[in-house]
Amino acid sequence: MKAARLYEYDPEFRGPEFLKVEEVPDPEIQEPDDVIIRIGGAGLCRTDLHIIEGIWRGKVEVDLPYILGHENAGWVEEVGRGVRRFRRGDPVIVHPLITDGVCPACRRGNDMHCENGVFPGINRDGGFAQYLLVKERNLVRLPDGVEPREVAPHADAGLTAYHAAKKAVRVLEPGDHAVIIGMGGLGHIAFQVLRTLSPARIIVVDRSDLALSLAQELGAEYRVKGGDDAVREVLDLTGGRGAQAVLDFVGEGGSIEQGLAMTRNAGYYFVIGYGGTIRVPAIDMIFSEKNIVGNLVGTYTDLVELMTLAGEGRVRLATVHYRLDQVNQAIADLHGGRVKGRAVLVP
């Protein structure tokens, strides 16, 4: 099969060939619950850029070269003899973590913290290829009429956005404000989830005119241009109090400081994007009682719920499609801020 593999890290992001597209052996069924997926779409994520840059080096154990791609959807191609819920041709989306199902975290339904989890595209071969080997337990059947290439980024981007937005919904009441920092690949999904599930007034903040135009297309009433005046504008929109929930999908370049400044006392700052560092004096935490909440992708149940909303047309993805042999162009476009929504590789 054809696959796009990472041979060496590129800290300076020089390119132009970040990944090499080449022929590799097809995956094979090895255990009774194994499933081989024919990839219909593989999302390109900013995490993939960080992997290429080497930011994940030392945090996960992986031998180069290997295949990236952790946002995957497609059709069942082959199943192990123990698989009962799926058969060849079924359209599916792949929950990004292969879990054991029996550790305490899995038993609590908190699968993203599985003690023995394996993450295709992160610490083993992923879906930037024609086929992917997974397990029956991390497959979710797609609703009727939903195409794999249109929803593949939901396997991580959508799932992460949904997981964070669902947490925010629990603390939002009528009359509250929620802020989304970064209306890109994750933010535009979180906006739709919040609009569907919460009564809050939603404020979108982004430096990119392209992202703000997407916010307008999706019906965002309050749009703030990112920059030095963003905090003041958000405070003006919230009567000087700040927002009850701030969801930061950037996590660097000043967004952390601004996000905390936009959060009202006793409010919630959800950090989803990363790259920066959170530094808050202890006395400020005491007097403000602000809550800082981390977010790591999402659970299997979260993905099932998100696919329900996608099937009902209540959450849609803005996607740009690339052939697998255009992977390096897709990477350059994402790095350069030229992708509106999510980039998806279609083998």
UniProtKB/TrEMBL annotation:
Keyword annotations from UniProtKB, A to Z: Metal-binding, Oxidoreductase, Zinc
Any Pfam family matching the protein: ADH_zinc_N
Swiss-Prot/TrEMBL cofactor(s): Zn(2+)
CDD domains xref list: arabinose_DH_like
PROSITE patterns tied to this protein: ADH_ZINC
Keyword Oxidoreductase attributed: yes
Sequence ranges assigned to domain Enoyl reductase (ER) in this UniProt record: 15-345
Enzyme Commission code: 1.1.1.1
Any GO MF annotation of the entry: alcohol dehydrogenase (NAD+) activity
Enzyme class, UniProt record, top EC level: oxidoreductase
Superkingdom of origin: Bacteria
Reactions the enzyme catalyzes: a primary alcohol + NAD(+) = an aldehyde + NADH + H(+); a secondary alcohol + NAD(+) = a ketone + NADH + H(+)
TM stretches of this protein: none
Family as reported in the entry's similarity comment: Belongs to the zinc-containing alcohol dehydrogenase family.
Protein name: Alcohol dehydrogenase
Organism field: Caldinitratiruptor microaerophilus
